[in-house]
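Subject: Sanity check before I submit

Could someone independently write out the structure tokens for this chain? I want to compare against mine line by line before I put it in a report. The sequence has 371 residues.
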Amino acid sequence: MRPEDIDYPRPVTECHACSDLAAEMAAALAAASIVFKDNKKYSQKLVHGATTLFKFSRDQRGRYSAGGSDASFFYNSTSYWDEFVWGGSWMYLATGNSSYLQLATNPTMAKHAGAFWGGPDYGVFSWDNKLTGAQVLLSRLRLFLSPGYPYEEILRTFHNQTSIIMCSYLPIFTSFNRTKGGLIQLNHGRPQPLQYVVNAAFLAAVYSDYLEAADTPGWYCGPNFYPTGVLRDFAKTQINYILGKNPRKMSYVVGFGNKYPKHVHHRGASIPKNGVHYNCKGGWKWRDSKKPNPNTVVGAMVAGPDRHDGFKDVRSNYNYTEPTLAGNAGLVAALVALSGHENTGVDKNTIFSAVPPMFPTPPPPPAPWKP
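---
Independent answer below. Compare away.
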């Protein structure tokens, strides 16, 4: 049905042990509290919500998708340890309370979150794995505040791991294949690749901003030194591919460019507003119709092409035509990170507003000596 026509009950699912979900919500509210810090009352409300949720995530352990729930079919969570590191990092930035930093930099926590495992999905930031985001975020803390002991050891590890992840995104390295058209295959040829690509483009662009702001001209991959600019180039080529610079000359963002998907897997876009109230099953004829969508869902990024740069603009095949919140979140982040002037650096201070000074302030100089 059209979302505007929904007249059937939509029951919520209640969970009592869902650490991953609660810690992720805490991370979102904590990050938002920094964005809205000038609105003190609202910002404090966000911090309060984040604190409550994070405590709940730590006290009642469990995966939100355990036990064959609906969530396990669509977005099955593999673990909650990465959300503990990610949530803990944002909680520290939102509150300045060092107990959160202790948690986020606890070596056992990092180990459980998979910081030392490697594996095919290492360095892939996604709805299921926040570790890469946390590694980049904590590298920012080390680059700009350098908190030192007792956090330094794991922060240095995360910083080194972030460097290795950034190397893995470069075409010179073989951790990930690329399509003939140049799209990085972060999910190793499985369908719906773009959500992972935009996240990597965002992290690469933002990490290059960190290095620039720290007056660091580049970083090492093994014995070779790479200038920070190659990270921006990586992000740009990937986003340009998505916006139409690909073998099919197809923009995968609906409403952008001359050629974009017209059969998007999205009920609001595919069911016409024609005065007819289609019931729950009545809308299926529009899902299966060969006609282009009557409504344009402008700005929605679809799931993307296959590993051969091929794309089928077919509504019923969600592996090609489905837009998601997870994908669009990363797209917006990547576009923001790449927009603006080359020299518009990252704001070094605002994110640390709540963090107390790391070291005591030096005493004032003595008064001039009078004989």
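---
OP: Matches mine. For the report I'm noting this point. The longest helix spans residues 40-59.
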